[in-house]
Structures are given as structure tokens and as C-alpha cells.
Amino acid sequence: MSHLDRITINPNQCGGRPCIRGLRIRVKDILDLLAAEVSRETILEDYPYLESEDITAALEFAARQTDHPILKAA
């Protein structure tokens, strides 16, 4: 089940960067916390307006961004 519907992109919010559910928390903010080894539970405690599915959505969004074809020059 995809959670990508939780990702919003609004050119008038956060410079058009992908955010969570129209909130002013960017996908990158969540990814940075996870990369810094902050646990999912701690993120949810520190940002009570986030839901577990929001973190999953951020990870899913990032995974899809890295899945692109490599074009070789002819």
C-alpha cells in the first residue's frame, strides 16, 4: 500500500519542496533525522502532529526518487 498521497508539493510552501500532508515539515527533514539515527518513535514524540505513516511516506518518496534509468550515450 502506497503512502505517497501524504506527500504534498506546493510552490508557495517551503520553496516548493516536498512536504508531509501540507505541513511545513519537508520530506528532507524526516530523512535527515532518520540518517542521524533518530528513531521513528523519537521523531513522533518530537513532532506530535506527524504520524507513523508520514515517515513511511518520506522513505517511500525517497526510494522512488532514486529509481530512475541510467541512459548511456550511443
Describe the structure in your own words.
With 74 residues, the protein is mainly alpha-helical. It has a single domain, classed as Arc Repressor Mutant, subunit A, CATH 1.10.10. The protein is built from three helices and two strands; from the N terminus they run ββααα. It has helices spanning 27-35, 40-46, 52-65; strands at residues 7-8, 19-20. A two-stranded antiparallel sheet has the order 1-2. The longest helix is centred in the last third of the chain and has 14 residues, at 52-65. 15% of the residues are buried. The model has no long low-confidence stretch (mean pLDDT 93).
Which features would summarize this protein structure in a list?
single chain, 74 residues, Arc Repressor Mutant, subunit A
Summarize the structure.
α1 crosses α3. The longest helix is centred in the last third of the chain and has 14 residues, at 52-65.
